[in-house]
Design a protein that fits this description.
By secondary structure, this protein is an alpha+beta fold. The chain contains seven helices and six strands, in the order H-H-H-H-H-E-H-E-E-E-E-H-E. The radius of gyration is 17 Å and the shape is globular.
């Protein structure tokens, strides 16, 4: 069993391009307004449009939480200076998710930099998700760097604390979960404390509770998956991004 855990840790290292032991999380100064989770929630019913777009759905929701004008456009189709988008809110959200999935998995990222392409049928890799958040900002200003934290099988508690600190400072945190052998799904942590995290699950469009005890034991119950694998964290501040324009 120890050998299997070591092999799993090495696999996570290879996939994320990060040390298997979590590096200390950069802690930014708290912003003036309340952190994510006390004043904002993903809109109920924002469900991923296909089985492989959970990561892209988390990117769209993160951006909506950090940019009120983008969130308003998703819901109403209206933005100052532009004709009203006549698609339904559900169709608008689905189209944004699918377009985001194309962008994260191609050879060129949103900033025009080369990146490793990834088959969309296999979801969104964590490094591409981090690049997209760097470009669009998510709950941080556009251009804020993001990094991939590998969750070591033996140090789940430390990773939980890193995610909790990030949320407390205003960051929404994409979290990859899966089996003990492979990551299979992405949720977006939008709140939490020492007892439990709150996460948007794109498979249901609902907010789910992830108790610390279950996280530490690798017994999460979210969309059928139990093991935490990666967290995508902002390197800098967590103030909302600039006004969005389509």
């Amino acid at each position: 069993m120890r050998l299997l855990e070591d092999l799993t840790a090495r696999l996570r290292h290879a996939l994320a391009g990060r040390p298997a032991v979590p590096e200390p999380a950069p802690v930014s100064a708290p912003r003036a307004q309340p952190p994510i989770g006390t004043h904002a929630r993903p809109v109920r019913g924002w469900v991923q449009p296909d089985r492989r777009s959970c990561g892209a759905a988390c990117l769209v929701v993160s951006r909506a939480l950090g940019d009120p004008s983008y969130a308003a456009w998703l819901e109403t189709g209206e933005v100052a200076g532009r004709p009203r988008d006549r698609r339904t809110p559900g169709r608008r959200f689905a189209d944004e998710v699918l377009a985001t999935h194309v962008r994260t998995n191609r050879w060129i990222d949103a900033l025009g930099r080369p990146q490793w392409a990834w088959p969309r049928g296999l979801g969104t890799p964590p490094w591409s998700l981090a690049r997209e958040l760097t470009a669009t900002g998510g709950t941080s200003p556009p251009g804020t760097g993001h990094r991939v934290l590998t969750v070591s099988p033996r140090r789940h508690g430390e990773a939980y604390d890193v995610v909790t600190r990030a949320v407390a400072h205003g960051h929404a945190v994409p979290l990859y979960v899966g089996t003990r052998l492979l990551p299979r799904h992405v949720v977006l942590v939008v709140g939490g404390d020492a007892a439990a995290l709150e996460a948007y699950d794109p498979s249901s469009g609902r907010t789910v509770r992830l108790p610390r005890e279950d996280f530490v034991r690798g017994h999460l119950e979210v969309a059928g998956w139990s093991e935490p694998w990666f967290a995508v964290l902002a390197r800098g501040g967590a103030t909302p991004g600039a006004d969005w324009r389509p």
